[in-house]
Hints:
The chain is mostly helical and 160 residues long. Helix content is 68%, strand content 0%.
Amino acid sequence: MTNILHQEYKKILDKQGFISNEDLKPLEEILDNHPKLIDSKDTKGATLLHKCAISCHTPWRKRLLENLITRQANPFVEDNEGFTPKMEAARCGNNTAYQLLSAYEDKVRTKELAKALSALSVLGSLLHTTSTVDMKRKIGANIFLSDVAARLMGSRQMGD
């Protein structure tokens, strides 16, 4: 059953042109029942977020973009050409989508940074309160924590 729905979803994504108003209800029903499909790609590597970023000039397309953001679609997914949805919006001159996606990316990054800082804070306080740990171990652990933080922020992919 999931495979059939996935195929239906792909058919909508792979259509020539952009998602139409008639596609909206079936898309929402599929995403309601199978939320993991939200970041599925078409043959060019574009997700629904990419397609909305290119063409959200009509009110229902803007609503779909907002709906995808509410459903936490990954704003950092790149298509086959290496473009994220926000980059596509900029490339196409779609200021509305660009602004929505910029604010969404900032929100996602802030949330991820807060998680990383919280984890580092807990680990740091454990190191600080552990009296049996010698100085070499503390220094090594701090270097490790810095490396973990850098990796978390450097290789940011939502959903990983």
